[in-house]
Design brief:
The chain is α/β, with parallel strands linked by helices. The protein has helices at 5-14, 27-39, 50-55, 61-73, 88-91, 111-127, 159-169, 193-202, 217-225, 235-251, 258-280, and strands spanning 2-3, 19-23, 44-49, 78-85, 101-104, 131-136, 173-176, 207-209, 228-233. The model is unreliable at 147-154 (pLDDT under 50). Bound molecules: glyceraldehyde-3-phosphate and zinc ion. This is Ketose-bisphosphate aldolase.
């Protein structure tokens, strides 16, 4: 069934667990995330990023309609989240498209501007009944920038600043920079667990880890134990899909039917989803 991101995240936080949120780009991503979650009986978030909307010729609705339909028919609770939104016009499409939550990303702006833009987005979102996540202390590697060194001093969220930001912006959850970086293709990130402990002790909203594809299993499990309640995963699905398709086409140079390789790509993504849920969702089996 279709549920809300707010309830899944709150339930996870109360259980000292995390809900996993997977970025979907194609119908196969949507089907794989739902199948993977069903295979381990875990709730899941389907998230669509502004970059994915751009890839879909700038149109949110075709993919959103597919995600809503998949969620409604799923055997596990599934929520829809709009991810890394920078454009106000996209933000405003969220409620009608079936999304219960948005991540409003003004993290590239200086603090005061990030706060003002986020506060305005949060006021609008709350008036619509949406749950809103924001980011402070930019997690690098977005939009093709080279991934930041996981220990780069710039890529960290300051606890005192975060406390003021959450209070003044009224957001429901905060994405924190604790050593992960977007779009990593190796699982080599080392997280700053001391900082995470400090942040989770200081803040009373759920914390979100971005760039989780680059975080090894043991580090992910430690991050959840340390207070991360939502784990965002994108690149890991693309690695799984592309790798499986590449292998299939190399072994079957005569293949023509797109269903043949999309099937193996979808199955590989579903296995990745199940594996990550097994690490971060401490309420499953
Ligand atoms: O918001 C999306 C996530 O932060 C995805 O990051 O592609 O590095 O896993 P990733
Ligand atoms: Zn992200």
């Amino acid at each position: 069934p279709l549920v809300t991101t707010g309830e899944l995240t709150a339930r996870a936080a109360a259980a000292r667990s995390a809900v996993a949120a997977f970025n979907v780009i194609t119908l196969e991503h949507i089907e794989a995330v739902v199948a993977g979650a069903e295979s381990v009986h875990a709730p899941v978030v389907l998230q669509v990023s502004e970059n994915a909307v751009r890839f879909r010729y700038g149109r949110l609705l075709p993919l959103a309609r597919a995600a809503v339909a998949a969620a409604e028919r799923a055997a596990v609770p599934v929520a829809l989240h709009l991810d890394h939104v920078r454009s106000d016009s996209l933000l405003r499409q969220a409620p009608d498209a079936g999304f219960s939550s948005v991540m409003y990303d003004a993290s590239r702006l200086p603090y005061a501007d990030n706060l003002a833009a986020t506060r305005a987005a949060a006021d609008w979102a709350h008036a619509q009944g949406l749950w809103i996540e924001a980011e402070l202390g930019e997690v690098g590697g977005k939009n093709g920038e080279p991934p930041l060194d996981a220990h780069a001093p710039g890529a960290r969220t300051d606890p005192a600043e975060a406390r003021a930001f959450v209070a003044d912006s009224a957001v429901d959850a905060l994405a924190v920079a604790v050593g992960s970086s977007h779009a990593m293709t190796t699982r080599t990130a080392a997280l700053d667990h001391e900082l995470l402990k400090e942040l989770s002790g200081t803040l009373d909203v759920p914390l979100v880890l971005h760039g989780s594809s680059g975080v090894p299993d043991d580090e992910l499990a430690a991050a959840v134990a340390g207070g991360i309640a939502k784990v965002n995963v994108g690149t890991a699905l693309n690695i799984a899909m592309t790798g499986a398709i590449r292998e299939y086409l190399a072994a079957h140079p005569e293949a023509v039917d797109s269903r043949s390789y999309l099937t193996v790509g979808r199955e590989a993504m579903a296995r990745t989803v199940a594996g990550i849920l097994g690490v971060v969702d401490r309420t499953t089996s």
